[in-house]
Amino acid sequence: MKQNIEINEFVILQNPIIGSHILQEFSKRYYSEKNEGIKLPFLFIVLPIVFSKEYSNDISTKNFKIGSMLKCLNNENLYWDTLQQRMSDFSDITFQSLNIAFATSLLFYDNQSASVVPNNSKSFKPTDKKDYDKMIKTAHRLGYWFGALKDEEICSYLNISF
């Protein structure tokens, strides 16, 4: 008897190589908004959000406005109160993604500012994968929103601590 196996692209794409690209894209957008690198702990917020199909479906279609972020935070179908735990659950893949991003020079650590900055001269080739594109769009919006907010506001809005 043949079994049909349904492949969930979001689960397949949850790997450190894709994660390193997502962190680079997020950092690029953040840097373009603030003209400075992001503090390392804030990168641990990104993958638990971007690697979630529910969050990416909602965020990837929003505008690049803080009001859109607030609408996402008020979406009853998204469980923002679990973000702190998901950050912990995704810490291994985030560390692996950061390791790859630093090793391949997608990201640099600036010792003077104690922040992570993107290498804008390196990029991935675009893909035609629908879910992957959605993840990249989500990373761009998060980068913009985080770049438009103060660190304390990000922590307050997302109810997280470091």
Question: In a few lines, what is going on in this structure?
Answer:
Pfam families: MC3. The protein is mainly alpha-helical and 162 residues long. It has helices at residues 9-12, 16-34, 46-50, 53-59, 66-73, 83-89, 91-103, 130-148, 151-158; strands at residues 107-110, 115-118.
Provide structural commentary.
This protein is mainly alpha-helical. It has one domain (36-158). It contains nine helices and two strands, in the order αααααααββαα. The protein has helices spanning 9-12, 16-34, 46-50, 53-59, 66-73, 83-89, 91-103, 130-148, 151-158, and strands at 107-110, 115-118. A two-stranded antiparallel sheet has the order 1-2. A hairpin with a 4-residue loop joins strand 1 (107-110) and strand 2 (115-118). It is globular. The model has no long low-confidence stretch (mean pLDDT 87).
How many discrete domains?
A: 1
- The SSE string, one letter per element, is HHHHHHHEEHH
Low-confidence stretches: none
Task: Classify the secondary structure makeup into a structural class.
Answer: mainly alpha
Topology:
Blueprint: H1 9-12, H2 16-34, H3 46-50, H4 53-59, H5 66-73, H6 83-89, H7 91-103, E1 107-110, E2 115-118, H8 130-148, H9 151-158
Helix pairs in contact: 2-7, 2-8, 4-8
Name a few traits of the molecule.
162 residues, mainly alpha, two-stranded antiparallel ribbon, 9 helices, 2 strands, globular, ABC-3C_MC3
